[in-house]
Amino acid sequence: MVCGASSGFGRSIAAALAREKAEVIAIARREEQLKILKAEYPDHISYYAGDITLSETIAHLPALLEGRKMGGVIVNAGGPPACSFLETRLEDWDQAYRNLLRWKLEITQTLLPVFINQGYGRWIFIESISVKQPVENLVLSNSLRLAVTGFVKTLSQEIGDKGITMNIMAPGYHDTPAMNRIIKKKSDIEQIPEYEARNRIIQELKVRKMGDPNDFAMLALWLLSPSSWYVTGQTISVDGGRNKHIFG
């Protein structure tokens, strides 16, 4: 099951799984994009159109699993708007809690029993390099994603003997639609064209270019495979060297 499968990391992972002949349940809000994905891989993609951050969508998921043995879940959705702390209101924090943390707890509580019963599972949470090194003007993401890492690490310890792994992938700057809000914010603050803001961001990276979501998907494939059984509770940076911490 791949959440947020209509674009960005989710779509890249869903497509990579389909190319490996996996059966993929793709979930996203934009049904037109899911139809395009299914048309590309008709034998390996099924989909459900809905907002994964809403309880009514999550409540429908067990019905999609009937008769299937699930290999894993990609827990992924879009991030909050780019802003500084002084630009936020309490309502923004409430919404960030719902969009970044609450639904991830709910989907885990809903689906984890399925994996416990079958004695196997691979869970990957797509978060951000901001859990290791804050990103400017992303205070909502910097704050709430840290709660996800604490939850996932703790849960990985609780279920380590049940054949289930729980890991986080922490992407840095990748060439995905999600980058547009960061580029736009930098452009506005520094009063420069967006192409110049993009170039300045690239210059912050040691590899001097943004990541490719299709390459990112290759690591996800391994983490979803049986071969990754000895890796759990980890937050893995995929950031082009942006994070300078020794244990990054």
- Helical segment tally? 8
Give the amount of beta strand, in percent.
Answer: 5-15%
Number of domains: 1
Radius of gyration: 18 Å
Oligomerization state: single chain
Describe the structure.
The chain is an alpha/beta fold and 248 residues long. It has a single domain (2-238), classed as NAD(P)-binding Rossmann-like Domain (Rossmann fold), CATH 3.40.50.720. Helix content is 46%, strand content 14%. It is built from eight helices and seven strands. It has helices at 8-19, 31-40, 55-65, 90-118, 139-158, 179-190, 194-203, 213-223, and strands at 2-3, 24-28, 45-49, 72-75, 121-126, 164-171, 235-238. The strands form two sheets. It has a four-stranded parallel sheet with strand order 4-5-6-7, with helices on both faces. The chain has a three-stranded parallel sheet with strand order 1-2-3, covered by helices on one side. Strand 1, helix 1 (8-19) and strand 2 form a beta-alpha-beta unit. Helix 3 (55-65) runs parallel beside helix 4 (90-118) and helix 4 packs parallel to helix 5 (139-158). The longest helix has 29 residues, at 90-118. It is globular and about 55 Å long.
